[in-house]
Each structure stands twice: as C-alpha cells, then as structure tokens.
Write a structure and sequence with these properties.
By secondary structure, the chain is α/β, with parallel strands linked by helices. The chain is built from 8 helices and 11 strands.
Length: 279
C-alpha cells in the first residue's frame, strides 16, 4: 500500500496532510487549498486539528500559490477537520471567515448548506448536502475542475463510519445515491477525500461504497439470525477481520445499521430487501 503525502493534485487543488495519522484518520486529515489560476484569493477546506505546525504549513501552502485566504469551508464538524479552523482563520487575516453547516463551527455571519455556491476570484465551489457520516456533512463540487471533495463521506482508502447517533444510515445511503448520480451526470473525474489519496475514479469508488453498505447490512442480518443480541456481539461476528482498535468505531456503524433495519417495513426487513438497489 502506497502512503499518501498530499501535495499538488490538480492545478486548482493542493493537499496539506495534517500530522494526525491513525486507524481512523489513515495518513492524516487532508486540508485542501484551492485557488483558480491568476487569483488573488483562495479557499481552504478543513484546516484540520489545532496543531500550530500544521496551521502554519497550510498558510505557507496558500502563500506559495501566490494568494491570500478568502474563506475557510468545513465539510463537517468532527475535530480532526474543524478544531483548528478558527485559529487558522485568525492566523490568515482579520477578514477571513469560517463557513459551516453547524453554527457552532462558524466564524462570521455566513453559514453553509446544500445548494449554496461559493465563488472566490474565479473559483466556483458548489455545496452538496451529504449527511450520514455526521448530521452536518457536506461535499463540494469544483465544476471547472471536474472534482468532488467528500470530507469523510467517501474516503480515499477503506470505508467510513456512520457515527451513530448523529450519523444515520438512511441519510448516508441517500447521500451515496446522490453522489453517484452527481458524479455520473456531471462527468466528475477527480475525488478529493478528507482522508487518504485522491482518486481519478470517483464513480467506481462511490459505487463500491454502495455495494459495501448493502453487503454489511446482509452480514448484520445474518449475525442477528445466528444469535447476536447486542451491537458488540454483531461487531464480533461481522467485523472479526478488522483490527480491534477500530471496533469502537465499528460499533457506532452497527448501531446505525440496527436503527436502519428497525425502521424498515417488516416484509422488507424479513426478506433482506431494505438496502437500496445498486445500479
């Protein structure tokens, strides 16, 4: 497996990798520095943890592109993406705001929600609501670059957690379907995730995520039929092949899966037909 170090990914996108690697963060959090050619200002997505060295490295990467920071955008409020946002914005300049869906994560008066379009010196960022991993998760489309930034909704390697109870599996499945339709209809060719390497095959990745979720639901049903009675017992059966250090996160996803199955009509639940069709 090739390690991911960030760097220049597209003419409009540079990744600064935060120094917070781990089982849940993979190589670390991807902070994306975005700017259009010839721009005076750019956009920073997910400044990451409040690590002074990282925040200074992000600002240096912005300056290396010959721009100032116009605005900070957050894909969601989990600390490994948002903890350093306010400190970074203050470091970047007094007029720099932080825009997020969650009001608690904002700096300034402007929020952020699906359907918004952010324009900064020729860079267009379209905001897509993609709840599920968390209730406040957003994704961003760069239409001129054919790129999709997904935060933790879709990662560059492995799969993500549906962080129950804030994260909901029904929302997550809807978000994956929305992203698949978006990537296919818009011909997006670059996936820029919140963790792990960028990918030139976003449609393939999103479809694999949908298949994986359907397979996991079948495995959870099988575990319940075999006698599992608690989320932990389901994890022990379904996630036996993953490192135990990620079992607490797996249990969050299992709780989200159990909630989802409980909400299905009895006929669909009993016949194992609650998952969405995979094109």
């Amino acid at each position: 497996m090739t390690s991911w170090r960030g760097g220049d990914v597209l003419p409009v996108a540079h990744c600064v990798l935060a120094p917070n690697p781990g089982p849940m963060t993979l190589d670390g959090t991807n902070t994306w520095v975005l700017s259009a050619p010839g721009a005076h200002r750019g956009v920073v997505v997910d400044p990451g943890p409040r690590h002074p060295g990282h925040l200074e490295a992000v600002l240096a990467a912005v300056r290396a592109r010959g721009v100032d920071v116009g605005v900070v955008l957050l894909t969601h409020g989990h600390p490994d993406h948002s903890e350093g946002a306010r400190a970074f914005a203050e470091l970047a300049g007094p007029a720099v705001g932080v825009r997020a869906l969650d009001p608690a994560r904002r700096l300034g008066q402007q929020g952020l929600q699906g359907g918004d379009v952010v324009e900064v010196d020729g860079l267009v960022v379209e905001v897509v609501a993609t709840p599920g991993h968390s209730g406040d998760s957003l994704s961003f489309v760069l239409p001129d670059a054919g790129a999709l930034l997904t935060g933790d909704t879709v990662l560059g390697r492995g799969t993500t957690v549906v962080a129950h109870p804030d994260g909901r599996l029904a929302d997550y499945l809807d978000s994956l379907a929305r992203l698949e339709e978006l990537v296919a209809s818009r011909g997006l060719a670059h996936l820029l995730p919140g963790h792990g390497p960028a990918s030139p095959r976003p449609l393939e990745v999103v479809r694999s995520y949908r298949r994986h979720r359907a397979e996991r639901l079948d495995q959870v049903r099988a575990a319940l039929a075999a006698g599992a009675r608690t989320p932990r017992e389901v994890v022990e059966r379904v996630y036996a092949d993953v490192p135990r250090e990620v079992w607490p996160a797996a249990e969050l996803s299992v709780r989200a899966q159990l909630d989802y199955l409980d909400a299905q009509p009895p006929l669909l639940r009993d016949q194992g037909m609650g998952e969405p069709p995979i094109p």
